[in-house]
C-alpha cells in the first residue's frame, strides 16, 4: 500500500467498500513495460480498469488501447487517444459495432474465423486484421485457452480469406493466459506465429505484426518476475523464431498495468461458526464475488489480506461475501489465516485490487451498490 492510498483511507468519509488506485503506480508500470520491450507498442487492455483518470494518464504517456467494445473505444477517445492508437481486440463483435468503430476511425480489428472476417469486410473495407490463435495458457492462474482463437494451422486460411475480401492481413495474436508467471510462456506461441508468417508468405501475403497479448502478472501472495525479465525472454524468442526479420510487436498489459496500484478497503460484517463444535470460523465481508471479487472463482486469484490485528495469533477461516447467494464464497477449499482477535466492524485491506474489480462489480445485486472507485 502506498503512502498516498494510506492517507486517502485515513481521511475518507465512511461510505462502504471501495477500491483506491494510485496513478503514480500506474505510470511507473507503464514506464517499466515501455522500457522492457522498447520497440513494442503498449496497448493497455481497457477492460482491466476503464476509469477515466487511468485512461487519461496513460493516453498522456503515449499508450495505445486494446478495446473490447464500442463503449471502450469511446472511453479511450474521450481520454485523448486517437483512432490510430486503438485496436478493436475482441474477436466477437456485432457487425454494427464494427461499422461504428470504422466510422470513427478505427482500422485495426481482431479475428479468429472466416465469419468474423466477412463481417469486417462488409462494413470496414480495407481495414487491417490480425488473427488470434489458440494458446494453452499453461502456467497461468487465470487461463484463457478455449473461447478465443483458432488453431495455428487454420490462421493462414483465415488471413488469406481476409486478403481475398479486400482487407489487409496484418498479423497474428495470442494470449498466454492471465497472471502468467512463466517468462518463457510466449516461446511456443511465437513459434506458431513464425510458422503462420512463413505460410502466408508462400501465399503472397506479407504479415507485419505479432500481438504478444497480455498475461503480464501483478504480485498477489507470491513474488512475480519484473517486466524486464519478460522483455528479455520474449525478445530472445523473437530472435530464435524470426531471425533478423523481427516483426513489429504490440503488447496488451492489463492486470500488470493496474493490479498492484489498487487496494480495496472492506469491513467485517459477521464472524460465526456452523456448529458449537466447529473449529472453522466463517468471516463475512461487505464485499464478495458480486461486488468485484469475481476472480476468486475457483479460488484462482488469491489476494493478500491485511487487518488491524496482524501479528496476533491466527487460525484458518472461510472467507465469504455478504449476498444471499451460496456462490458468494471467496476462499473455502483453501481457507485463509486470519487473526483470532478479528472482530465485527474491523476493516480488512485487500491488496493488488486495481484490475478486474470495478469492472466485475455487479449492478446492485441484492441491493448492494457497485464497488466505489477512487483514483488518486
UniProtKB/TrEMBL annotation:
It is an enzyme of class 4 (lyase). Pathway: Amine and polyamine biosynthesis; putrescine biosynthesis via L-ornithine pathway; putrescine from L-ornithine: step 1/1. Keywords: Lyase, Pyridoxal phosphate. The modification N6-(pyridoxal phosphate)lysine is found at residue 47. Its cofactor is pyridoxal 5'-phosphate. GO terms for cellular component: cytoplasm. Coiled coil: none annotated. The keyword Transport does not apply. InterPro entries: Ala_racemase/Decarboxylase_C, De-COase2_N, De-COase2_pyr-phos_BS, Orn/DAP/Arg_de-COase, Orn_de-COase, PLP-binding_barrel. Residues 25-258 form the Orn/DAP/Arg decarboxylase 2 N-terminal domain. Its EC number is 4.1.1.17. Gene3D superfamilies: Alanine racemase, Lyase, Ornithine Decarboxylase, Chain A, domain 1. It comes from the Bacteria. It catalyses: L-ornithine + H(+) = putrescine + CO2. The active site is at 324 (proton donor). The keyword Lyase applies. SUPFAM superfamilies: Alanine racemase C-terminal domain-like (SSF50621), PLP-binding barrel (SSF51419). Belongs to the Orn/Lys/Arg decarboxylase class-II family. This is ornithine decarboxylase. It comes from Azorhizobium caulinodans (strain ATCC 43989 / DSM 5975 / JCM 20966 / LMG 6465 / NBRC 14845 / NCIMB 13405 / ORS 571).
